[in-house]
Amino acid sequence: xxxxxxxxxxxxxxxxxxxxxxxxxxxxxxxxxxxxxxxxxxxxxxxxxxxxxxxxxxxxxxxxxxxxxxxxxxxxxxxxxxxxxxxxxxxxxxxxxxxxxxxxxxxxxxxxxxxxxxxxxxxxxxxxxxxxxxxxxxxxxxxxxxxxxxxxxxxxxxxxxxxxxxxxxxxxxxxx
Length: 176
Hints:
By secondary structure, the protein is an alpha+beta fold.
């Protein structure tokens, strides 16, 4: 089984969320969901690259800030003591799981150990960092999440299958 990566999607991150991602100021959960969306969406990948390039151009136009005396030498001394990091080679996904998601789940979606949260829903927590959390949610066709509340924002990105609610219908790559 392979995840379907559509040529285009219908529901995208807001311009503000995409700009926060491109500028490196989005929290980890928002960054992860946008990064996975970008796997599916060429239009948002292009827009994100443009935003990054614009940010880089703006940084180049800033006047240099004065450095404290000896700052460069201190930074170079710290670098001398650091061992180079070699990222281990990543195994290729066997089911099309986006590579940006694989480190969070330890491999492919097909190998995830789901936890039941109801008769038709299961989930896998990815991480919690203070008030920010991310999880995968899986439901059988027709499953309902039921009434629930949140203290903050909730984003949903479809990886496989789809769902519909009062805001629309969502397919792989769509972000709600």
